[in-house]
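Friendly challenge for the regulars: who can give me the structure tokens for this chain first? No prize, just bragging rights.
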Amino acid sequence: MSRKLGQKLLTAKIAKQRRRGIVVRITQFFVCGFLLFLTLTGSLQAQTTIRVGAFPNITHAQPMIGKANGDFEKAMGPSVKIQWTSFNAGPSAIEALFAGAIDMTYIGPNPAITGYVRSGGGALRVVAGAASGGASLVVRNDSGIQKPEDFHGKKVASPQMGNTQDVALRAWLKAHGMKSMDKGGDVQVVPLANPDQLTLFLKKELDAAWAPEPWATRLIREGNGRLFLEERDLWPQGQFVTTHLIVSAKLLRDHPDLVKNWIRAHVELTDWINAHQPEAKRILNQQIQKETGKALPPAVLDEAFARLQVTYDPVRNSLLTSARSAYDAGFLGKQMPDLSKMYDLTLLNQILAEKGRKAVQ
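First reply, four minutes later:
Bragging rights claimed.
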């Protein structure tokens, strides 16, 4: 073989090896890329979404502050996505839970009771408390109301028919020998969103309202209102559940670990709020402004916050009393329901035990 021919063969061999190397590298590149794609896709598919309801008011301090600070996202970790939904009153949140639009929500006791009963006890469980107190009966200064009997013939608002304040109002009227018009009485009970209550106070088209904070304080300070009654004065030790945390039975059954992580963050937020009230109120107010378009004046926020207690204790006994009132008002059917399985405080008490604290009942 000539020397020239040998060089050509050697050159061809080297070129072939180079082409083979390039093909190998390209193949490796695409394989690695495909594996990375599968990994990312798998991660996305493995991500769990938890859909949570809350109301933009101060009786929902933990979700408002936790939402603002990202505390729940940190506690749940990167594999969990949190989707928030805002509500004005409890019955709407219960409908969303029934429709599968949310998995858990902060809510008042009476809508939770109604939801539990409507589902035959199968839809939800109370897993923690959130707030005690923070609701009042406010009358318009020029309404002519000075004593309970003066409510005859008056127009009184609650946030929504069947919600916690609505049931409290009807129970109070009954205790003083009065009824709403729909029950054959002469007191016009009107379900109105809290902002609309303030508008009608100013127009003198509403005589009174049973409202949660901060709306009760706003009615007093901005709507020419006067505090007639603080609801906590009606309860032993001034404690009654205003807000608690409920979860769907399905979420609790399928993802107890996620629910426990949420409750742990909730307990720690409760502790932080009570230990850092000035900063907590500032963050809370910023979140309320973000969701409603208007921040609370500092004096309103301070007065309103003083009327409630942020707590993880669900104050179970007060709910049972509220249930009796809801039943008497005709919201719970023909017989008093069995609420014995409505609570599942197992995870909350596990967390409290880990922290060396007394279990709640």
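DSSP finds 14 helices and eleven strands in the chain. The mean pLDDT is 89. Your move, everyone else.
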